[in-house]
């Protein structure tokens, strides 16, 4: 791998590039290559990334710092921020079960969604990677990315219609005699997970498709020629070699699922005990901005910890496979 | 699997040439309605090194993939030691395979790659380790067992691929252009190694290649393919000395093709020019196709040939003008323009006359290969390079062609 080729990916501000590079490629010497490239191009090499840096500083870093500042303010009885600094909001986040349990619930849900997305996304990605160019492949692709092309409101109300008391799902269940009367599916955790998985699936499927498509067909043929049947070939060749795709998919889905709140709000209602929804309700109905700020930052830190744990896990697995 | 457990050891298994081993009958295969393979009959003997040689698109890889089970034939059958393989899936055929791009599992060490087929067969650990070491020793790579494929050179990777395929002791090893990704020097070395290995193990090898030199130097027999058919099956000397068809003559050894009308006195009219064919007589007025190897063409300066300029056994056959000449290292290459659209290639040790000079050419009577009077269906194509491109069309409309796949030369 030549140094100039890695330079844009390994740029100093490109966080995701750095992260995924380490997790997926597993290429040794990636970092040193980046360093020499930076040295060679000097200040001029940074010019192309300047707009991105300015954009991130103005619209991401500055607000984040202000949210952090806000989270350090105590509030009066009406929730108005007072002067002075304290960690009282963080103490509330960790001690009041209304907040702390929401954090754990979010973490558990995000992990569940991540696992489901990888498991459900794998067969879809496999089909997509094997489909020949043409109508079928295009239709499959459109079906896969359709959740991203639909507005969140339309998508969520689709689920509402499907899962409501006289919706299709309940009618089928009652009609088959599996239920005596329509179940309350709409506000259930089940529907929340289903709808979140639906939105997140493309983020798992697309990198998996790339990874699966990149596996040399001759490797599967070699495996079969050596006596391994299709099942063994799948587990010993296809799955291990798709690991980079699984890693990318999981590290994209997990943080997105940690922060999601509109979809659960629309299908599950405002009482879903998710951290994102708690932040939302603190801002829109309680008007306690400092505790909302503290909760969001805690959620952010938890997400980052989760992502780095996932990354470490995948890197370890990758290293065991690829030496 | 029928291979003797000791086969990978020291004792070379003596090939029994007469035993039918793999029989291919009426095999047809095609993709999306296009027939790319149409082999009447091909039998591969136990312990032989058989090359399948042909230009790209001739169906040789499809034939190999049919043997391996990756391509489902649309008709015909393949039997291995009398067992019909047609409906047996790849993983139950027990054949070894070596790919052009090595196809080593990148997520496994060299040893694990070689052990893969043994693990599948649940060979117990002690024996597995022993056989891995033994297979790696065969290819001289036992010290690389712990490496990853990407840490090895191309030649080493291909050796590992051979070791991996041999570890399960298959009766037959199929090799799909295994040397094509290697550089010229390494390719020559690997050729020798592969042949030695084959002889030592007595294993049947089916070797697909587009490189005629490779096929000539390695094989017991060569099946020359074109347009999905086997044009000729024979030993390297047979296909070289007595090519069955114009295609074989041109593809192997790039023979000069002389196509014209014969005369009873042995002369041939090509492009309006009368040449002495070197043969005693030809059917008067009938279309004739002859082939002469470039290295058999002798040149003498001047348009009026001096008989003394030609070595014993050969004689002047005609004259022309040097159109092109080049020194290729071991010989000179010259193109002699005989008439409009008629040119002869010659390879000579002596420097040919300069471009534009008159030259006379000759050959001995034994140097002329008669390709038969009806083998001229490619008339108009003057270069051998075109033969491959035409292959696809030929396969389609030559269904009733009398050019049967194993026909002997007319001479």
Jot down its keywords.
heterodimer; A: mainly alpha; MetI-like fold; globular; B: Rossmann fold; OB fold (Dihydrolipoamide Acetyltransferase, E2P); 6-stranded mixed sheet; 5-stranded antiparallel sheet; 24% helix; 30% strand; disordered N terminus
How do the SSEs of chain B run, as a string of H and E? Answer: EEEHEEEHHHEHEHEEHHEEEEEEEEEEH
The main pleated sheet of chain B reads as: 6 strands, mixed
Return the average pLDDT of chain A rounded to an integer: 83
Which two chains have the most extensive interface, and how many residues on each? A-B, 21 and 29 residues
Oligomer: heterodimer
Low-confidence regions of chain B:
1-17, 373-411
CATH superfamily of the domain at 103-275 and 292-322 in chain A: MetI-like
CATH architecture of the domain at 103-275 and 292-322 in chain A: Orthogonal Bundle
What fraction of residues of chain B sit in β-strands? 25-35%
- Give the overall form of chain B: elongated
Can you say what the CATH homologous superfamily of the largest domain in chain B is? Answer: P-loop containing nucleotide triphosphate hydrolases
The strands making up the biggest β-sheet of chain B line up spatially as: 6-7-8-3-9-10
* Strand portion of chain A: under 5%
Overall 3D geometry of chain A? globular
Helix share of residues of chain B?
Answer: 10-25%
Report what the structure shows:
Chain A: Belongs to the binding-protein-dependent transport system permease family. CysTW subfamily. Chain A: InterPro entries: MetI-like, MetI-like_sf. The complex is a heterodimer of chains A (323) and B (411). Chain A starts with a helix and ends with a helix. In chain A, 33% of the residues are buried. The radius of gyration of chain A is 23 Å and the shape is globular. Chain A has a domain at 103-275 and 292-322: MetI-like fold. Chain A has helices spanning 3-6, 15-25, 30-41, 50-71, 88-95, 97-130, 135-149, 152-163, 168-175, 189-213, 217-225, 230-241, 243-259, 262-268, 275-286, 289-322. Chain A is an all-alpha fold and 323 residues long. Chain B has 411 residues and is of the alpha+beta class. Chain B folds into two domains: 22-249, Rossmann fold (3-Layer(aba) Sandwich), CATH 3.40.50.300; 255-371, OB fold (Dihydrolipoamide Acetyltransferase, E2P) (Beta Barrel), CATH 2.40.50.140. Chain B has a six-stranded mixed beta sheet, sandwiched between helices. A five-stranded antiparallel beta sheet of chain B has the order 13-12-11-14-20. In chain B, α5 (184-201) links the parallel β7 and β8 (204-209). In chain B, α2 (110-120) crosses α3 and α2 runs parallel beside α4. The longest helix of chain B is centred in the middle third of the chain and has 18 residues, at 184-201. Chain B is elongated, with a radius of gyration of 24 Å. The two termini of chain B are 43 Å apart. Residues 1-17 and 373-411 of chain B have low confidence and may be disordered.
């Amino acid at each position: 791998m030549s140094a100039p080729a890695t330079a844009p990916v390994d740029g100093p501000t490109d966080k995701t590039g750095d992260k995924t590079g380490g997790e997926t490629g597993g290429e040794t010497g990636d970092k040193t290559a980046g360093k020499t490239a930076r040295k060679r191009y000097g200040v001029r090499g940074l010019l192309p990334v300047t707009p991105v840096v300015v954009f991130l500083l103005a619209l991401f870093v500055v607000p984040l710092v202000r949210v952090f500042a806000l989270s350090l303010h105590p509030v009066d009885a009406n929730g108005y921020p007072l002067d002075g600094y304290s960690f009282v909001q963080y103490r509330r986040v960790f001690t009041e079960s209304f907040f702390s349990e929401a954090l754990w619930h979010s973490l558990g849900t995000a992990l569940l969604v991540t696992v489901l997305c990888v498991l459900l996304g794998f067969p879809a990605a496999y089909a997509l990677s094997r489909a020949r160019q043409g109508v079928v492949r295009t239709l499959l692709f459109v079906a896969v990315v359709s959740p991203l092309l639909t507005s969140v409101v339309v998508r969520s109300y689709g689920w509402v219609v499907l899962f409501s008391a006289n919706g299709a799902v309940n009618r089928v269940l009652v009609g088959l005699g599996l239920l005596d009367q329509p179940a309350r599916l709409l506000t259930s955790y089940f529907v929340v997970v289903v709808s979140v998985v639906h939105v997140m699936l493309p983020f798992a499927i697309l990198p998996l498709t790339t990874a699966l498509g990149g596996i040399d067909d001759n490797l599967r043929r070699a495996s079969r020629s050596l006596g391994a049947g299709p099942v063994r070939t799948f587990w010993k060749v296809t799955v291990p070699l798709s690991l980079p795709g699984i890693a990318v998919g999981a590290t994209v889905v997990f943080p997105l699922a940690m922060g999601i709140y509109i979809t659960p709000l629309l299908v599950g209602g405002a009482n879903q005990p998710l951290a994102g929804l708690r932040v939302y309700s603190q801002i829109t109905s309680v008007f306690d901005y400092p505790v909302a700020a503290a909760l969001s930052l805690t959620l952010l830190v938890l997400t980052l910890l989760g992502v780095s744990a996932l990354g470490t896990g995948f890197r370890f697995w990758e290293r065991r496979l690829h030496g | 699997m029928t291979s003797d457990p000791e086969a990978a050891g020291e004792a070379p298994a003596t090939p029994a040439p007469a035993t039918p081993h793999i029989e291919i009958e009426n095999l047809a295969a095609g993709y999306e309605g296009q027939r790319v393979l149409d082999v009447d009959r091909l039998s591969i003997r136990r312990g032989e090194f058989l090359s399948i040689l042909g230009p790209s698109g001739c169906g040789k890889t499809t034939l190999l993939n049919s043997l391996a089970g990756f391509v489902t034939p649309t008709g015909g059958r393949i039997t291995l030691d009398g067992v019909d393989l047609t409906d047996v899936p790849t993983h139950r055929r027990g054949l070894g395979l070596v790919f052009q791009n090595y196809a080593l599992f990148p997520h496994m060490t060299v040893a694990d790659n070689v052990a893969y087929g043994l693990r599948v067969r649940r060979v117990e650990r002690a024996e597995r380790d022993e056989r891995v070491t033994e297979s790696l020793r065969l290819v001289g790579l036992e010290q690389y067992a712990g490496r990853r494929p990407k840490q090895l050179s191309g030649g080493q990777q291909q050796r590992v691929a051979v070791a991996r395929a041999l570890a399960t002791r298959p009766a037959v090893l199929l090799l799909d252009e295994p040397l094509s990704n290697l550089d010229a020097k390494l390719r020559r070395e690997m050729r020798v190694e592969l042949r030695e290995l084959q002889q030592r193990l007595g294993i049947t090898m089916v070797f697909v290649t587009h490189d005629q030199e490779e096929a000539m130097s390695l094989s017991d027999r060569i099946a020359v393919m074109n347009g999905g058919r086997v044009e000729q099956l024979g030993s390297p000397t047979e296909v070289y000395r007595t090519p069955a068809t114009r295609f074989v003559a041109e593809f192997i050894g790039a023979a000069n093709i002389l196509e014209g009308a014969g005369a009873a006195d042995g002369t041939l009219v090509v492009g309006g020019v009368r040449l002495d064919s070197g043969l005693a007589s030809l059917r008067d007025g009938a279309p004739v196709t002859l082939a002469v190897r470039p290295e058999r063409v002798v040149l003498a300066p001047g348009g009026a040939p001096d008989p003394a300029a030609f070595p014993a056994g050969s004689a002047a056959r005609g004259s022309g003008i040097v159109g092109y000449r080049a020194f290729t290292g071991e010989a000179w290459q010259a193109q002699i323009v005989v008439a409009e659209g008629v040119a002869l290639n010659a390879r000579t040790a002596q420097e040919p006359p300069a471009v534009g000079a008159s030259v006379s050419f000759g050959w001995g009577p034994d140097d002329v290969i008669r390709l038969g009077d009806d083998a001229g269906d490619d008339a108009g194509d003057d270069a051998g390079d075109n033969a491959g491109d035409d292959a696809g069309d030929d396969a389609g409309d030559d269904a009733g062609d009398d050019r049967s796949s194993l026909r002997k030369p007319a001479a």
